[in-house]
Amino acid sequence: MTDAPRRLWGGRFASGPADALAQLSVSVQFDWRLAPYDLLGSKAHARVLHRAGLLDDDELTRMLDALDGLAADVSSGAFRPTADDEDVHTALERGLLERLGALGGKLRAGRSRNDQVATDLRLYLRDAVRQLVARIAELETALVSLAERNADVPAPGMTHLQHAQPVLFAHQLLAHVHPLTRDVDRLRDWDARTAWSPLGAGALAGSSLPLDPEATARELGFRGAIPNSIDAVSDRDFVAEFLFVAALLGVHLSRLGEEVCLWATSEFSWVRLDDAFSTGSSIMPQKKNPDIAELARGKAGRLIGHVTGVLAMLKGLPLAYDRDMQEDKEPVFDAVEQLLLVLPALAGMVSTLQVNSERLEATTPTGHALATDVAEWLVRRGVPFRDAHEISGSLVQLCDTRGIELWQLEDADFTAVDARLDPSVRSVLSVRGALEARSAVGGTAPSRVAEQLAALAETATEHAAWATRD
Ligand code: ARG
């Protein structure tokens, strides 16, 4: 049996917990990350106890000093949890008792680990979300700058990973920025919904002591107190929702990673990775591997696992608190920490990518990528698209039999396929023409892409600013 005198709940038990129970239930090895937030909550709670007349002036001063001292020691590492501390709350109460003696035991009045942990996790995640948004903004900026530096470079636009129609390479890069901006929007929406405080809910029913949940909420930067104490301690929507956004962000980073892996192959050769952002092989001296892009792709798997795992953990839980909910933390910490590793690495990789514009220029029109332009040229001359599609398809077939591209056909070849194909069709057999022509909103025309560039550069700056605002 473990002798655990620091337990927060020993009174009615004749014996201590079995080792197997102690080992199963201990969470301090991961929830120690919540320590700074737990201490902020404790300071707010101490002030409320003081206003309720449950701590006198001198006690409040000593309590706040001790909490500040403990916070400094936690951050310097001078105060650490021990093997006997069940969780972060237990460890910090021990720290307070070591500093204040019996006075330290007054802080627990009116508070339970149930409202405490829910509050801590919200505070932690609201902070983490700001760090994530700052890193996403850096990646957005890196992609926008790469697009700006290559504003005139065309690329083979693809569907089914086959040459489809010419696009600007910048258009393709910016297509990776838009999903990130939506992720930031989602995180900001999430933040507004999560800005409500559970503190004051106690175990589940509120407190008979004259506390002031609205005051603690405001002190902790929340918009107010959660209006139902049972919901306050049971709700983990903010965890599931955050994990969904993290998983979707992970999927977006994975799709970007996959494209960079392709672009860096010798078959594509669209980009070269900078030495500092690629790795070598232990056996093949020539290798330059896109490990950052691959890890970005790989991490998406565990992020998807985290949201799935937490939803499954929650689905059958009766209200209010159940210990199952302790399982919410590791996925959250892991999602935050993995994303904080991946995002800066991707931003560095993107900002240092060398774009092979000659190769992009040369391969953009290949694979008969201008066939749609021929069909649309015919449509402008009154040919029904159904027929125009067939005619252009016949040209492609002819090219394939000769192993040439559309612009290499002779004038006579065009008219032989269809009399309506006079040689002026050559006017649309250019990449520039194909790009310029797609000038409606959302199109790949250089003028439209320039508009996108300007708008997204501004959005990224605004995202960075939000991340540092209180
Ligand atoms: N470590 C616990 C958790 O993370 C803290 C809350 C414990 N509450 C309780 N009633 N045992 O969920």
UniProtKB/TrEMBL annotation:
Q: Which reaction does it catalyse?
A: 2-(N(omega)-L-arginino)succinate = fumarate + L-arginine
Q: Which Pfam families match?
A: ASL_C2, Lyase_1
The protein, known as = Argininosuccinate lyase
Q: Which UniProt keywords apply?
A: Amino-acid biosynthesis, Arginine biosynthesis, Cytoplasm, Lyase
Domain of life according to the entry? Bacteria
Record SUPFAM superfamilies: L-aspartase-like (SSF48557)
Identify the pathway: Amino-acid biosynthesis; L-arginine biosynthesis; L-arginine from L-ornithine and carbamoyl phosphate: step 3/3
Q: Which intervals hold domain Fumarate lyase N-terminal?
A: 16-305
| Group of enzyme by EC | lyase
Q: Which residues form the Argininosuccinate lyase C-terminal domain?
A: 369-435
What family does the database annotate?
Belongs to the lyase 1 family. Argininosuccinate lyase subfamily.
